[in-house]
């Protein structure tokens, strides 16, 4: 993942941890019964867990999409490079064969002249 993605994940984790700590501290100092406070803390923890799962799902989908895009772009670029190399090879191969044929004909002609 990119450096930006790591920073985003760190910020997200920090925000969630801060929110959780704030909720817990607020409830602990609230003038309510212990049983009710514990129930609220549990409910808020479950809410935060659900929010974290949702954010994880969103981030995961974004990462998968980016991977898919990068993978497709890489494959397309690799195919383009392969075709370019093959076309260049075919072009120069034909030129070399043509030149070699011309040289062979010239050498044969010289040999025939020397034989006479």
How big is the Rg? 36 Å
- Count of DSSP-assigned helices: 2
Protein structure class: mainly alpha
Helix and strand element order:
HH
The counted number of beta strands is: 0
In percent, how much strand structure appears in the residues?
under 5%
- Low-confidence regions: none
Largest beta-sheet characterization? none
Rounded mean pLDDT score: 83
Which descriptor suits the 3D outline?
Answer: rod-shaped
Number of domain units = 1
* Fraction in helix: over 70%
Distance between the termini: 77 Å
InterPro entries: Desiccation-related_membrane (IPR052928), RRF_sf (IPR036191), YtxH (IPR024623)
Protein name: Gas vesicle protein
Pfam families: YtxH (PF12732)
Organism: Chryseobacterium defluvii
Task: Characterize the structure shown.
It contains 2 helices and no strands. By secondary structure, the protein is mainly alpha-helical. The protein has one domain (17-114).
Can you summarize this structure?
This protein is mainly α and 116 residues long.
For the structure shown, list the relevant keywords:
116 residues; mainly alpha; RRF_sf; Desiccation-related_membrane
Question: Topology, please?
Answer:
Layout: H1 3-29, H2 34-115
